[in-house]
Amino acid sequence: MIQNQTLTFILAGGEGSRLYPLTARRSKPSVLFGGKYRIIDFTLTNCLHSGLRRVLVLTQYKSHSLNKHLRDGWSIFNPELGEYITPVPAQMNRGEHWYEGTADAIFQNLNLIERSNSQYTMILSGDHIYRMDYEAMLKSHKASGADVTIACMEVSIEEASAFGVVVINENQRIIAFEEKPDRPTPIPSNPEKALASMGLYVFSSELLMTALIRDHQIKDSSHDFGKDVLPRLVRDQKVYAYQFGGERGRVTPDRYWRDVGTIDAYYKANIDLLAPVPPLNLYQHNWPIRTYQQQQPPARTISGASGTDGVIINSILAGGVVISGGNIRDSILSAGSYIDDRAIVEKSILFNDVHVGTGVKLKNCIVDKSVTIPPEEQIGHDLAKDRQRFKVTEKGIVVVPHGFIFS
């Protein structure tokens, strides 16, 4: 099996500054998603179902929460069989600096590639939401005789400037790589679309090591795959595109892939789950998303002190949630949240252990964990007032930070 010849790196050390304050105490891949998951669970689940059993998670920024999650939820492989999901912190293995770019993160761990004796190296990002069968991509890489294979997807020309854009010939070979171009090159068959890199790569291991050593020797390199390494390889190596969404045998072909790098993108990706037919189906039984789950009782509703019944409309509730006479609409509530009498929660995302007091009104909010909102408080209804206390995004999403104490 080709998976047995493959070493997998997951890049999970990013600061995630655009997700602040959700990343004030945790790295971007360990931010909660969908009421019970962490963002990195989607990439790890893809590895699990794709048969990848040698996985190294490169961590750096505020990694304790992520390390704990990997220990509690992903200690599922047997090291005695050569299987593992192992966090690898930045250790200054080569030089006196932390990871300085995606390529440098792998370069500083070349010894792990050498020790693995792997024929192929897969490099993934730990901060995207999607399902994908990596085995299909590995087989495509081998069948094409490629030195490098880049996973790609079609995006609109307007969106393409935010990505690395690849230009291919009729055989899917990449003939140019444009990193976040002002004027992206469109697909020949559709001038309104471009082919964007998803930041997922398969390398022949020997070539990868050679390319990273070469990149390290270039003084003005930013040591980034998209900016530096891949454009050079496209010129003199066989680099092919693998178009996302083709692996229909095992994964629902929804072609859903989201970079949740901003608060607004993160909020929308969560709320997408509430659609009557969600673009990402969490209920696909042959590809379940794995995570660590606290031991919590089932969610329940009870009548509040005023006699008002708890009401839940088009929402997702994790274990341990109690609705005590509150009203929940189009929202996602994580484990241990408590909604008190006459409270109204609309189009909001609540993290673990949030207590919403009597008569509170929340709208278009993200409330981080361990927050107690006092009775009659209103958030999301007066953005001018909210900006004096909280971060408010361009699209009007209010973010209440972890452990916030109301005066």
Q: What does this protein structure show overall?
A:
- It is a single chain.
- 21% of the residues lie in helices and 27% in strands.
- It contains ten helices and 29 strands.
- With 407 residues, the chain is of the alpha/beta class.
- Strands 1, 4, 5, 6, 8, 9, 10, 11 and 12 form a nine-stranded mixed β-sheet that branches. It has a six-stranded mixed β-sheet with strand order 16-19-22-25-29-28. It has a five-stranded parallel β-sheet with strand order 14-17-20-23-26, with no helix packed on it.
- The chain folds into two domains: 2-272, Spore Coat Polysaccharide Biosynthesis Protein SpsA, Chain A (Alpha-Beta Complex), CATH 3.90.550; 300-400, 3 Solenoid (UDP N-Acetylglucosamine Acyltransferase, domain 1), CATH 2.160.10.
- The protein has helices at residues 40-49, 64-73, 102-107, 110-116, 134-144, 157-160, 205-216, 225-236, 263-272, 383-387, and strands spanning 6-11, 32-33, 37-38, 54-59, 84-89, 120-125, 128-130, 148-156, 164-168, 174-179, 193-204, 239-243, 257-259, 300-302, 311-313, 316-317, 322-324, 327-329, 332-333, 338-339, 344-346, 349-350, 355-356, 361-363, 365-367, 372-373, 378-379, 391-392, 398-400.
- It catalyses: alpha-D-glucose 1-phosphate + ATP + H(+) = ADP-alpha-D-glucose + diphosphate.
- One of its GO terms (molecular function) is glucose-1-phosphate adenylyltransferase activity.
Q: What labels describe this entry?
A:
407 residues; 2 domains; 9-stranded mixed beta sheet; Spore Coat Polysaccharide Biosynthesis Protein SpsA, Chain A; 21% helix; 6-stranded mixed beta sheet; 29 strands; alpha/beta; 10 helices; single chain; UDP N-Acetylglucosamine Acyltransferase, domain 1
